[in-house]
Write a structure and sequence with these properties.
The protein has about 100 residues and is mostly helical. It is built from five helices and no strands.
């Protein structure tokens, strides 16, 4: 079975949470950061966009500054909205398959 905290960082990166970088195990490092901050109950097919939004918001905090791909602090209007995230994950190739594994 897929670990939801391993899937969430990849989906969050695609939504703009952090940059793709050439650092080994980047998504694992983000996955280790998220469990303390994103409730497992949010990482379901029905609520995954909300979990991604929360991950994007957390990626914009000082606590995430040490993680690879950190994009720096951005104003809230620079972060994607819940509606934008929903559109991105439904348009991305393979997103539906990723969501069914969560």
């Amino acid at each position: 079975m897929d670990d939801p905290y391993r899937s969430l960082p990849g989906l969050a990166r695609k939504a703009g949470a952090y940059d793709k970088v050439d650092v080994p195990f980047t998504e694992f490092k983000w996955a280790n950061y998220l469990p303390d901050n994103v409730p497992l109950a949010l990482i379901t097919n029905e609520k995954v966009a909300e979990a991604i939004l929360q991950a994007v918001q957390l990626a914009n905090t000082s606590g995430a500054a040490k993680l690879p791909g950190f994009r720096g602090h951005r104003s809230l209007d620079q972060l994607p909205t819940l509606d934008e995230i929903k559109k991105r994950i439904t348009k991305r190739h393979g997103a539906d398959a990723a969501l069914t594994r969560i």
